[in-house]
Amino acid sequence: MERLASAEHRFSTRQVFQLPLNPARHICKSRCLKGQEHAGFAAALGLMSLTFSGFISLGISSVLFESRIGCLEPEVPKETETFIRSINRMFVMTLLTMAMPKFLHRVFPKPWKIFCESWDYMFRMTEVAEKVSRGETVEGKYLTYYLAQEKLSMKSIYGNVTELLLAGVDTISSTLSWSLYELSRHPRVQAALHEEITGVMKGGAVPSAADVAQMPLLKAVVKEALRLYPVIPSNARVISDRDIQVGEYLIPRKTLITLCHYATSRDARFFPEPDSFKPERWLQKDASHHPYASIPFGVGKRSCIGRRIAELEVHLALILMHFEVKPEPEQGPVRPMTRTLLVPEKDINLQFVSR
Ligand code: HEM
Q: 90 C-alpha to center of ligand 1: Å?
């Protein structure tokens, strides 16, 4: 974060992702650009994530409300900013509160308090439902559809909309960040991807879903990033009605089974050189992968409902990459750690060099 890219590559944060989330810009100015709006810069993932979160929140809220929540405005509304931060704090506190026995919450009340405050704030974001109950008009087909279902309680509406909003922000922003991190460390893959994108776009400015469908390497890059960094690193199921057998193990009914996606997707039996970023492994037609070895979106009827939106958003955001992304020279490798979601253990510093 402290270092700047060379002066000949001058561009602002806004130009890089065209996503001027205000807090990000302020951090950037004060710590990095020292008051100059236009300069090359090295973006830290913390900063990048904020910017990405703004972009992603905008996308999800457009789907949910068919209206924008102001992430791309010069002045981001306070409530939007607080909403994004609440999601983040909730995830940080989840692990801590889950691990703490109940009695300890009385001794150390802060984590639980922050956890509850974050959820309360996220629920308030959906107050639009209350407007409807008061007979006020609300834009947005998705919400209107929900609200029109007379059998749904307000509690269900709040729950569903809040879950969709929170499930779709950090997940995509993290995937985007890890994808750029790996691309910055694999210039050949990045060059091939750039070639693929420019070949399909042929000078066109705005890619469509149909364009993305013609970009196998782009999809492979995202698959590989999700294999190495499954943003939800583990998952759980309870089979309540019967005992089941998995391999040599008999699992009695009502047992909580926790699966670790992270471990299986880095298992050398399924993915040779499991810790290496090799998007080409997804392109080899003769190579078959165990269908459940890498399941970043889960499987079955409770699998990720937002998968298609997520994939498209990540693909499109990577296409916005009119820059060559390079690692900050002094930065070593960054490892992932779990904070309910899988996150980087330290800031990722990248340079964005105008093409
Ligand atoms: C890269 C991005 C994303 C990843 C890796 C991801 C991953 C996952 C995973 C692993 C699950 C649990 C699946 C299971 O238990 O089998 C899940 C559930 C869910 N996801 Fe996502 N997700 C992403 C983006 C999104 C987006 C954009 C949305 C909403 C627009 C979303 C909404 C949901 C919802 C509502 C569930 C719960 C589904 C249910 O319980 O039936 N996700 N996601």
A: 16
